[in-house]
Amino acid sequence: MRRDNRKREENLKGAIYIAGGILGILIVTLVIVFISYANKVKKNSESSGFESSKITELVPNTSETESASKEIGKTVNEVKNELDNNITTQNNIPVEENTSTIDNSNITEITITETNEEETKAEEKVEFFYPVDGEIIKEYAKDNLLYSETLQEWVTHTGIDIAADKTSVVKASCKGTVVGIKNDPRYGLTVIIEHNNGYKTVYSNLLTTEFVNEGDIVETGETIGTVGATATFEVAEQSHLHFEILKDNEYQDPTILLAKPVEEK
Q: Quick check: pTM over 0.90?
């Protein structure tokens, strides 16, 4: 019995020793693990602090960030202009005026000059003279009727007939440009001259127009043709020049506008 008890005690002691050894190993292991973990945490904390400081240095401050955010949505030209203005201000360089500014004074002068020329041209008096020397044998009759010996009927008459012998010289009634030379089916060989202020003069029943060409500028009294008998609507009438004046393509009474016969040139 005693042996058995002693044996049991020895076995129990052995178990306790083994358990104590295992417990000691566990405690030592836990201590080592704890120390390693603590060191690791410390290193991570130092590393994190370093990175935080670096990030703080690299990231702009709040005011700069707000300033940068305000640039969003601006065009490239707006940002460039603001940068140029900032540089100019920092360097104390005065902002130069835009040299491309248009000089309005010159434009005003040109406009005034053109306006004055137009007003002068508009106010320029156009004076007409008799293209041939002779009596008026048929009056102007746009709104009433005159009897035609050739047609044997009453008709309108948009000009005047001035008595003149055949081959009599026909002169320009006023300075102008020859804009037409034609053979009219009613009034025969015809010259048309254009003058200022919308006026035109028409010379019909001519024998020849060899003195002028279309586009010629003729002076008052310059020869433009000779009297003939080419007007089929007036062939039975006394030898004459059929003469018309138009204003803006409207027939006018020549006797109201004509001054006096011109001197031959």
A: no
